[in-house]
Amino acid sequence: MSAPIVVIGGGVDALVAAHWLARAGESVTMIDERGQVPSSTSGWIPPEVIRRLDLAAHGLVIGAPDPWLSAPLPNGGRLDLWRDSARTANAMRALSAPDADRWPAFCEQMREHAAVLAALYSAPAPDVMTRDWRELLHVAKIALRTRRLGRARLESFLRLVPMSIADLLDDWFESDLLKGVLGAAGVMHLHQGPRSGGTALAFLHHHVGNAPGVFRPSHSNIEAVLARCSGVDRRANVRIQQIDVQAGRVTGVTLVDGTHIAATLVVSAASPWQTLLDWVDAAWLEPDAIRAIRNIRARGVVAHVVLTLDRAPGFAALAIAPSLDYLERAYDDAKYRRISHAPLIEARYVAPSGADATHAVIVQMQFAPYLLAEGSWDASRKQALVDTVIAAVANHLPRDAILSTQCVSPADAATDDGFPAGQAHHAELALDQFLWMRPTPSLARYRTMIGGLYLCGPAMHPGAGTAGASGMLAAQTVLGDRGQQR
Amino acid sequence: MILKPTPFHPRTSVLCESHAWRRWSGYLAASSYELSHEREYHSIRNAAALFDITPLYKYRVQGRDAARLLDRVVTRNVARTKVGDVLYTPWCDHRGKVLDDGTVARLGEQLFRLTSADPNLRWLEDCAHGLDVDIDDVSEQVAALALQGPTARAILMQLTDGGLEGLKFFRLTATSIRGMPVEISRTGYTGDLGFEIWMQAEHALAIWDALIEVGANYGMAPAGMFALDVARIEAGLMLIDVDYVSARKALIESQLSSPFELDLAWTVNTDKPSFVGKEALVAEQARGPAWQFVGVVVDWDSFERLYLAVGLAPRVPIPAWRMSVPIFSGGEQAGYATSGGWSPLLKKYIALAHLQSKWAAPGTSLEMELTVEHRRKRAIVTVVKKPFFNPARKRT
Q1: Among A46, A467, B15, B313, which is least packed by CB within 10 angstroms?
Q2: Are A467 and A41 in contact (CB under 8 A)?
Q3: B-chain residues within 8 Å CB-CB of A273?
Q4: How many CB atoms lie within 10 A of CB A225?
Q5: pTM, full prediction
Q6: Domain A5-62+221-297+425-485 falls in which CATH fold?
């Protein structure tokens, strides 16, 4: 019997990697620095993960709120975006008849383009520099499949990739509000505004796995489901001191309390920064690699505010993003390391469930940069941010309904969750940190320079916005390598 | 001025009759002070020569983990050194290929000075991740002179407040010259008795003047790079960009060199738990290096014959050459020489050469390409152990 595999890190990718390996007959110990598993996880779950881990039978529920988003109209009232595109088009007609007419075609084209990405997301990113004939074959297959889209579609796809989301939306629509709420999906968690290049790709990336015409990530209980599954020795609420390395190979993990867990294989869903620079003695890393890891771009720009309420808020998901200009200005603040005074707000209602009988609204507030030009993320700064958020949603959420507030700043996320610079995506989802370059070209295949140490998680292809895909691909890589050794 | 003057420039520029300046790490450096470098060379071997070596890159490495950082970077064991020790050492990239070579001087328990031929600040900083250490580039703040030759010690003893008498080869002492603090190391690039003097740049001119004043009685002369080049070849000391290509600049695999291939096996300490390139070096040590860096001596008779055949007296290369010259074993190319020239002291035509291991044993007879009156010829050369010249006074 081989030594156990240790899977490090909270999060859906760690859980998926751990259970995937356990199902393959490995003995898996999971070290979760978090205390409890969140009841809701956002992002697309690859069908293979659902199938292989039997998630449906274990009670997986993927939320499908309808309308999937509501947005305040300039003159009062709301624009509701429905899962049924005809119904959405109808709702839009009051705003702009041409936009309403174009909506179904836009949804269809985005669906087609997202399908190209989806195909890339079920395998390790193609290694375009390879000389290995099997990998070349894989790359050629992808190229051939993409070519088969036909000239018009391929052109449209290739044109979209480096585009800004603002330019893409300006091609299609005239309504500021519609472009605002769609544009918001292109800058989610990015230190970029809607006029930055590559944001159209980010928009498309987050569309992968969604129903046509739905441009917000779905939420599911996947982490709660996996945490309940047996087969993995999960140790929660423990902190890692270091990943032990001897002669360039992992030998285990040492916890802060001094416990040593022996392992010949370690899979980490923590960020590359934390895994390799904080936990591995730098003597084992090549100096060039250290520089490359340090230069992975990760700048947190999101603060979360949790509001508990005495009643339901009257919306499932609310976005305050009245126009592309509004978003760009919100980003301008972040560019100069200021908290946006008129931020992008995405509020999501979480209904009472089980023992937790309160209503809650989770607000994602962007842009709130990790590094501030003046001062730091102290209590007064966070209170001011909460006040900004409450004022912004005041028309949709009466102040007297709020029972309590809690603010998680990017600085809190860095400390509590190990997010590099508070960036939940670990590596920003930008063109140069995408596919075979995610998070760096040399780390893109889940293996690291340390023998037996693998990476998964948001920084790894396909990464942030997908739930469990990199966990699955890392586990497959581990099993493949293990198979070759035997 | 595009090239920087060193702190000694107000003096050296007046002395440099030849106006033969060259570029050295962005500084102006004298190739020779007189029209010919020959007297300067003979000063090295018979009296003393004074070199301005300020253009070397110098880094001050300080802090609790200073020794750990250097041990992570260089191939020799730094932790085992004592205060006052100086190490000559190469350092490698992760492939075990040489990036640079220089010296590590332990100035204090937690204070070191690293000298190098190329800039290394970024490399040091990358290697220092997670360590408690400060790295400062002090290349401009610290001026340096090399005083090399049999009378070097006598000159310095006139000027310093002790510490020189018992100073051993590759040891360093902190002392002062006319009240100005200096560090003096018994090191150099000539393979002779010699010292290097490290000082704050603001004291450079006063210390130069003091040395010139006292050195006059000991036959001392300022000397330039031409003279140094002859001496360092005699001493078998390699030069970056001439005898090897730094792994930072190599464009193709075959331009890379490991320490083993540069005759620096003695500097590779594989007992250290880890350092950059260790894995590759352990593997290479096990299989043996493909190349070796050796000395070759040109056989005089075969050399003379080539000139006699065209009706000329033999012409020896008086300033040393720096280029790649093929070396053959019959029809096969055994390797190539990278530096060579006439040794006035040994009365021999010598060269430093890279040879594939099977031809690198001392005593092996090979042929080196020469151009005699525009035609390619071959002279017989014999592989010898380096250095060519190794006087007892270097160490005693």
Answers
A1: B313
A2: yes
A3: none
A4: 22
A5: 0.84
A6: FAD/NAD(P)-binding domain (3.50.50)
